[in-house]
Fold these 2 entries.
Entry 1:
Amino acid sequence: MVELLGVVMPDIVAFFLIGELAVFAVIVAAFVLARLHRGRHHHYVMLAAFLVDMVVFKPLMTARAFSGVWGEYPWSGTSILPHMVLDSLALVAGLGAIFLGFRYRVKKDANMFMPPEGKMHRWLGRAFIVLWTITLLGGLRIFMDAYVP
Ligand code: HEM
């Protein structure tokens, strides 16, 4: 067990909490880079955040949910099922944004731009960020219900 800001929680939960807040900060940074038309840096930073989240945090959280610590599927009395459904939608939007990013990007003078045909990348990318953020808020609610007195 570990104590953070007066709240006692299992080590793995502290890892999820700090890790997902860090991923959120990186996603925001990647979005700002896109707004500043730094497409090349935007794509590296967004890909790093997406991969770390989908390869490290989300599989570990899913494994914890199915380990029985929250009870059996569909985890009655918790918000875990809607949390997972939202995350699956975020995953689909994120994969779509990545596909369209590579499909339509234009490389020029060591930078990367999105021509008008790539506007669906922008919309799917924004959908990913919104869905991912709502999923994070849902996760924070589950955390508060379980560990904050
Ligand atoms: C999960 C992954 C990604 C997300 C969520 C995402 C999201 C976004 C968003 C929301 C914008 C529009 C920002 C705005 O103007 O409001 C954008 C722009 C852009 N994205 Fe991505 N993106 C992702 C991955 C990629 C990848 C893999 C590439 C390239 C291979 C890429 C290349 C670009 C480029 C070139 C722009 C235009 C930047 C500019 O305005 O000059 N993105 N992205």
Entry 2:
Amino acid sequence: MFRWLFIYFLFYKTLIIKKLQLTNLKKSIEYNNIINKFIDEYAISDEPKEVSFRKLVTGVKTDRATHLIHSYPAKLLMNIPYFFLNNTVLSKEGDNVLDPFCGTGTVLLEAILAKRNAYGADANPLARMITNVKTTNYSLKKIEFYFDCIKEKIINEEIGSYPDVVNIDYWFLPNVKKQLNQILYSIKSIDSPKYLNFFMICFSNCVKKVSLADNRVSVPVRLRYDQYPIGHPLREKNKEKLKSLKSLDVIDKFNTIVRDNINRFKKEETNFSSKYKANIVSTNAKNLIKPNKDLLKGITRF
Ligand SMILES: C[S@@+](CC[C@H](N)C(=O)[O-])C[C@H]1O[C@@H](n2cnc3c(N)ncnc32)[C@H](O)[C@@H]1O
């Protein structure tokens, strides 16, 4: 019985992979034609072309693979690298792709999914960490194991002292601060740096959402309601958010973020091939001016 189930599972998986390959091939042919058309038109008009990548790239979900594991300001619309990487006019399988300001790795992720080797640089250590986690192959069994350890530790541990965070009481309500501390303490007990990074990214994604920062702006500004006149929708919305933070179950929120991110790694398309790697090669794009010839051989620029 189990043998038959296993054979059925393998057959089903092969069918899905074949379907994905066929879709990719169709996309590649379609994008080759579009790019060649753009090139021809540009050669005649000598004028820049206006393109809506949202309209051009259809049928690809925003929450593709691991793109949404963490928020980041000015993230690139993933349709753009998807279009430029899923064709054979600009680059081929096995080529190298560099994004010198890679941020959270939108280009690097699309590059490895398109079977290219990806290289990136970014000055922000959080962005580099998100990129690394986003493009890593994780064992789901191990993630679940560490998640269980964290959940158990959170319940059983009582922590007295807080980490030395600047203006901690300005940004967090006491109940939120206490729960974040419990989560952080439990995550830090993970002995594998690879899995520690995964949970730290989930933690980081949770921190801003439960803080007193106004999430509508990317720079740190404290959420207020009194600056809006009575009757203004943001006055009521912000008042409501501040009220809900007072009784917020931060641990539950963190668990939901972890679960959503685990599900992103469970998706068929997130099964990264070990042949194509994403590498952060520098913390400063300026250092790439004198390229390492071996590393940058055949790099695709866009
Ligand atoms: C618009 S963001 C890139 C977002 C990215 N495309 C994404 O989807 O996440 C620009 C990035 O450039 C980085 N940056 C600024 N100056 C830099 C430098 N000299 N070297 C490397 N990165 C730099 C910033 O840290 C920021 O993450």
